[in-house]
UniProtKB/TrEMBL annotation, chain A:
This is phenylalanine--tRNA ligase. The lineage of its organism: Eukaryota, Metazoa, Chordata, Craniata, Vertebrata. CDD domains: PheRS_alpha_core. GO terms for biological process: phenylalanyl-tRNA aminoacylation. Its EC number is 6.1.1.20.
Length: 464, 580
């Protein structure tokens, strides 16, 4: 800040004149450089509405370096004339007897601030000779502000404990805040957006009375992942191209033996009202360890466990966990993803019940317009793909898969005949990518995640 | 699965709706011109047809909808435009049935065969293409890329029965294969097709067998060498009138289905539509079976069963009508109590009453079913390990750490070399068929994932503070599969200074959250430890209630380098399952 003396002198000058004063005039009357006055104007402006300063520009003429030399010592011609010694040159060589140094006079006029006395033509002539130059000066037209005072009051930047203690804040003026600036980001940790969405889905299932299944077993036997689900051993999903098999530990042991026999029979010969698939079922295929391809393997284990109870009790189960596919990867497919699964087992459940539960579930996600398309899945019959109307895309998009587990899966487990099990599944990644507008799954899942995206991601409310 | 149907509908929306209702997916509406111009440029497309093509996805178990003939038939029956045809097996008009004799040698390589004849068929270029395309689609799915079943179709007028299906040493088989000009031995052929973009995928099925399957006619002409190639001599064309079809297989059930599919679909174009001339197959033991089976099966079920499973209330008559529209001809029994459903040979997917129930629901219209709420009363429970995980995640974020989400699969290098550990000591489970090194093992620690996350975010302002609570996988003989998950909490602090005190402070905070007090006996403490992942003298083992639960420390500079990091880094890695 310019020193207070200058500021107050400036204010006193402004106070004296009517209708304002130019900063250049202030400079010459205070005998200081114009730039000092400009600094003072800006300092006063920062104090609030003390003065108003309107920027304007004016032009004036100044001597160049050469011009100044001429103004002081005379024009080159005059200097030549003077330099001739009294007797030294012959008359014939000297055409004039005496000279009038016009150039010097004109330049001296400009130097004294009387450039207006010269004609434009004369000034341009001198400009061409690089003796004069036209200069643009930016100055301020200073007038009194709404809060004008000739006394400088320093503004405080912040409230201090001392001010509060002494009460001095009452007399102080405070510098205004710039409310257009951003605040300082809080020093915080962040939850991952996919996990935030997972938390919401967990919440929805819990609100609907579903119990969480223990899905902390990525390694599964083909038996529980496929055979128990009545998925035949030649099914393409069991191919090396689709499933990750293990070399170590390569095979599983300790299957419930009677159940395994019943599974073998229903595949190879049928039973429970089924024709079966009529092929040579091999224990070696069932024993192969894999990375589970769906969490339905855990649902199968849970339903088998349920069937071993003394008396059947209805259950509602859910899980959200990782599954693995040895598939071709692209912008929306990774070798591992999270599957969301819901299962209800009770006597007398209908296809209409499955649609009703799905309607309730998707309503909690903010999706109310649903329709169902017949589909094929080896372990559910009927099977339905769930479509919701996407307003942005203006079309129906698939949002999940669902179905009623086949009797060939449930009856060998020992579940009572009248019990139906309805189930549905979807991926966690897809709704998350839609929710957060992410196109490449690698920006969301895995180590190539963009941490800035994690830092910036909003709270997750699926229904809004 | 794709199907191209060359017909124009009243409106595309209407057709889309019909597909949706019928469980098909109208993938795309296009034309040959569009496809060629997209794949090869506009210039090449200028000559191509601009007839509208409907590209349709068919459910994987509906082989009867794989060709235009079957799809149109199915939809017309569904729309009540026609009755489902009845397929019948007939004797030849003149003489004895064609006969295929299987010899004992086939037992070691491909023991089954079935056969049939399409008599007086009229192909057009479109029908012929459809016939070839159907075989290819069947080969790809139900035949499991020819491993289970291989189809051969022959111009019967160029060969003469009886036919012999046998197996011979590759050097003893010589014939001119389809579309070639000279004879090759089977051994030569296997070499010849090594570079064939299509056939090379099937060579492995018999390549290492001592004997290769082969079918001869009575004059020693080779019909085919299944599952690789047919002979050129008996090849069919658009002018072929009589087609001999043979399917050789390792799975007899599927061979019968495949044969039934082909003849039910294409007998439509025979002079006597929907009739198929039988053929006899003679087994090595002298047993003789007549094919195609074309078996009709009857299931009896009640209206109540359908109503109670679907959640509708229809009369038996109405349900019978619904099923009839699905090509499952149904009648109400005379006492009115039950419905008799006839399952045609085209519907091999119907193996249980529940499949019939689904068809009734489809014909009723899934979207016409009232959506109801089950009365199932249950109380929800969280899985305790996940409940603890959720609570800790929130508090770790509150402590200023940011959550990462890294892959459960990684390379052997990630969990061993890069951490300066010996792979053998990791207890890792190994994947036998990874497509790339990224999927060689399941992670045994969360640390490499977090370090890779740091490396990918080196441009972010320091310090970087990350955590993850997730599962690793370890070999464990005590489980049925020989492995188990273990829930870990891992955190890293990455800055210009190592920040051991920061990561140590985080451990103290976690223990505070878990209500474990510092102390030797019933609390937690840390004790200097040797660990090659960490900088010597800067690693400690963490004990809680006397048991080791993990480690913390400043990472070894070589570990930092191997993950392409440049700053000091400290880490905390613990098992949270003891705190359940």
């Amino acid at each position: 800040m310019a020193d207070t003396g200058i500021l107050e002198s400036l204010l006193r000058l402004v106070d004296k004149v009517d209708g304002g004063i130019d900063s250049q005039v202030v400079a010459s009357s205070l005998g200081v450089d114009h730039q000092v006055v400009v600094g003072a104007v800006k300092s006063v402006q920062a104090l609030g509405e003390v003065i108003e300063a309107e920027q304007r520009s004016s032009k004036h003429w100044e001597l160049t370096g050469e011009g100044q030399e001429i103004a002081e010592q005379g024009s080159h011609e005059a200097r030549v004339f003077k330099a001739i010694p009294e007797e030294g040159l012959s008359q014939s060589q000297l055409m004039v007897e005496s000279i009038e140094d016009v150039v010097r006079k004109k330049l001296q006029q400009v130097q004294m601030g009387h450039s207006s006395q010269l004609e434009e033509k004369e000034k341009n002539e001198l400009k061409k000779r690089k003796l004069l130059t036209e200069v643009t000066v930016k100055s301020y037209w200073i007038t009194k502000g709404s809060n004008f005072s000739t006394i400088i009051t320093k503004q405080e930047t912040e409230l201090t404990p001392e001010m509060i203690a002494s009460g001095s804040w009452k007399e102080k003026k405070f510098k205004p805040y710039n409310f257009d600036a951003m605040g300082v980001a809080p020093d915080s940790g962040h939850l991952h957006p996919l996990m935030k969405v997972r938390t919401q889905f967990r919440q929805i299932f819990l609100e609907m009375g579903f119990t969480e299944m223990p899905t902390n077993n990525f390694i599964e036997s083909s038996f529980w992942n496929f055979d128990s689900l009545f998925q035949p051993q030649q099914h393409p999903a069991r191919d090396q191209h689709d499933t990750f098999f293990l070399s170590d530990p390569a095979v599983a042991h300790d299957f419930p033996q009677d159940y395994l026999e019943r599974v073998k029979k229903v595949h190879s010969e049928g039973g429970y009202g089924s024709q079966g698939y009529k092929y040579d079922w091999k224990i070696e295929e069932a024993q192969k360890n894999i990375l589970r391809t769906h969490t339905t393997a855990v649902s199968a284990r849970m339903l088998y466990k349920l069937a071993q109870q003394e008396e059947f009790t209805p259950v509602k189960y859910f899980s959200i966990d990782r599954v693995f596919r040895n598939e071709t990867l692209d912008a929306t497919h990774l070798a591992e993803f999270h599957q969301i699964e819901g299962v209800v087992a009770d006597y007398g459940l209908t296809l209409g019940d499955l649609m009703g539960v799905l309607h309730q579930f998707f309503t909690k996600l903010g999706i109310t317009k649903l329709r169902f398309k017949p589909a094929y899945n080896p372990y559910t019959e009927p099977s339905m793909e769930v479509f919701s109307y996407h307003k942005g895309l203006n079309k129906w998009v698939e949002v999940g898969n669902s179905g009623v587990f086949r009797p060939e899966m449930l009856l060998p487990m020992g579940l009572p005949e009248g019990v139906s099990v309805i189930a549905w599944g979807l991926s966690l990644e897809r709704p998350t990518m839609i929710k957060y507008g992410i196109n490449n799954i690698r920006e969301l899942v895995g180590h190539k995640v963009n941490l800035q995206m994690v830092y910036d991601s909003p709270v997750c409310r699926l229904d809004s | 699965m794709k199907d191209f149907s060359k017909r124009s509908f009243r409106s595309d929306e209407e057709f889309d709706e019909l597909c949706f209702e019928f469980g098909l997916e109208l993938d795309e509406i296009t034309s040959e011109k569009d496809i060629i111009s997209r794949e090869q440029g506009d210039q090449k497309a200028s000559e191509a047809s601009d007839v509208v093509l409907y590209k349709i996805d068919v459910p994987a178990n509906r082989y009867d909808l794989l060709c235009l003939e079957g799809l149109v038939r199915g939809l017309q029956v569904f729309k009540d435009k026609m009755e489902a045809p009845r397929y019948s097996r007939v004797n030849p008009l003149n003489g004895d049935p064609q006969r295929l004799i299987i010899t004992g040698e086939t037992a070691s390589v491909r023991p089954h065969a079935v056969a049939a004849v399409l008599r007086n068929i009229t192909f057009t270029p479109e029908r012929y293409d459809s016939f070839i395309e159907l075989q290819e689609k069947l080969h790809q799915n139900i035949c499991r890329r020819r491993t289970l079943v291989a189809i051969g179709t022959h111009d019967l007028d160029t060969i003469s029965g009886p036919f012999t299906y046998t197996a011979k040493a590759p050097d003893d088989i010589r014939f001119k294969p389809l579309n070639q000009n000279q004879e090759y031995s089977a051994t030569q052929l296997m070499g010849f097709y090594k570079t064939d973009s299509h056939l090379r995928h099937y060579l492995h099925i018999i390549e290492d067998e001592p004997l290769y399957p082969v079918i001869y006619d009575s004059n020693g002409i080779v019909l085919s060498m299944p599952p690789i190639i047919n002979g050129d001599h008996s090849k069919i064309s658009v002018n072929t009138k009589n087609v001999f079809i043979e399917c050789t297989a390792t799975d007899l059930t599927k061979a019968k289905i495949v044969l039934d599919m082909i003849v039910t679909m294409f007998s439509e174009h025979c002079d006597q539509p929907f009739t198929v001339e039988e053929a006899e197959v003679v087994y090595p033991d002298g047993r003789m079976v007549t094919y195609p089976e074309l078996a009709y099966r009857t299931e009896t079920l009640s209206a109540d069963y359908i109503n109670s499973k679907v959640g509708i209330n229809e009369t038996a008559e109405s349900i019978a009508q619904l099923l009839t529209r699905m090509c499952l001809k149904s009648e109400v029994t005379s006492d009115g109590a039950e419905i008799q459903v006839e399952i045609p040979p085209t519907r091999s997917d119907v193996i249980h009453a529940c499949d019939i129930m689904e068809d009734a629901a489809m014909a009723y219209g899934f979207n016409n079913i009232t959506r109801t709420t089950p009365r199932t009363y249950t109380v929800a429970n969280q899985f305790p390990l996940n409940k603890l995980t959720e609570l800790l995640r929130l508090d770790l974020a509150t402590a200023g750490f940011t959550e990462a989400l890294t892959f459960a699969l990684c390379s052997q290098e990630d969990i061993a070399d890069k951490l300066q550990k010996n792979l053998k000591d990791t207890k890792a489970v190994h994947i036998s068929n990874p497509k790339t090194a990224e999927f060689q093992v399941a992670r045994t620690t969360l640390l490499p994932g977090l370090l890779k996350t740091l490396a990918a975010n080196r441009k972010m302002p320091l310090p970087l503070k990350l955590f993850e609570i997730s599962d690793v996988v370890l070999r464990d003989e005590s489980t049925d599969v020989g492995a188990r998950n273990s829930r870990r909490l891992c955190a890293v602090y990455y800055n210009k200074t190592p920040g051991f005190e920061v990561i140590h402070g985080l451990l103290d905070r976690v223990m505070q959250l878990l209500e474990v007090k510092p102390g030797r006996n019933h609390g937690y403490y840390i004790q200097a430890a040797e660990d090659s992942t960490y900088f010597p003298g800067r690693c400690a083992e963490i004990f809680s209630h006397g048991k080791s639960i993990g480690r913390l420390g400043v990472l070894h500079p070589d570990v930092i380098n191997s993950f392409e990091l440049t700053m000091p880094c400290s880490a905390l890695d613990i098992d949270i399952e003891p705190f359940l």
